[in-house]
Amino acid sequence: xxxLLFSAVSFFVAxxxxxxAPASKPAASASFAAHQTVTEKQATGLYDLSGLPKxxxxxxxxxxxxxxxxxxxxxxxxxxxxxxxxxxxxxxxxIKPGDTVSIQGLKARSLPLIxxxxxxxxxxxxxQDSFIVMPQQSPEMITxxxxxxxxxIWMPLYDLSGQVSGVIxxxxxxxxxxxxxxxxxxxxxxxxxxxxxxxxxTSGELGIAxxxxxxxxxxxQMVGVAVGNAPAPGPAPGSAGYDIIPGxx
Length: 249
Prior knowledge:
Blueprint: H1 2-20, H2 24-34, H3 38-42, E1 54-64, E2 70-75, E3 80-82, H4 88-94, E4 100-107, E5 113-120, E6 126-128, E7 146-158, E8 164-169, E9 174-176, H5 179-184, E10 194-204, E11 207-216, E12 223-224
Parallel strand pairs: 3-5, 9-11
Antiparallel strand pairs: 1-2, 1-4, 2-3, 4-5, 5-6, 7-8, 7-10, 8-9, 10-11, 11-12
């Protein structure tokens, strides 16, 4: 009788362990989720991007912004890959020049330009666009020092709307211009031509970039340009028209 009772208890314990064993798997999964990086969590964003075209390419350089961070990358074939301004910090921590990256996004019809909504590094880590557009520059940002750049132009620089917004030099430095100024000075901004520019910007491990205040084909031929997309200056303080709001007369 004891032998029979012992066998029944042993069978019950063994059965309980066998049934309970799989319960440990969710705990392991939860542990993995707790250790995911912010970048990896962004890979599973709100929108399903699986229907977007896919591209691959090798990164030649970052596209540094003149006041810090990056706005995208340039591939070795000359394709510019742009992300929204709030994703620049993620891109800089995800990939590096020399990496072959996978991209999901939209390619311009006739320009070497891709608007990227997802980037995946060769190490399998990804970022997905949050579709929340943050301001590229706040009024509190401190203007950087004056930098002088000169060299041969590699290619025109584009913005997210496809407008020319400066140039990338062969030494990988970047000169930003307001699109209207780039249009006005288009004859100076062709690939292979020499260019000089001075303006405020940044110089660091992500690259060198300036907002040009003066630009020209030689140091002696530089002309002043309006910086960024600021409105044209109005009447001087103290003048008759200074306190008049246009359209309110």
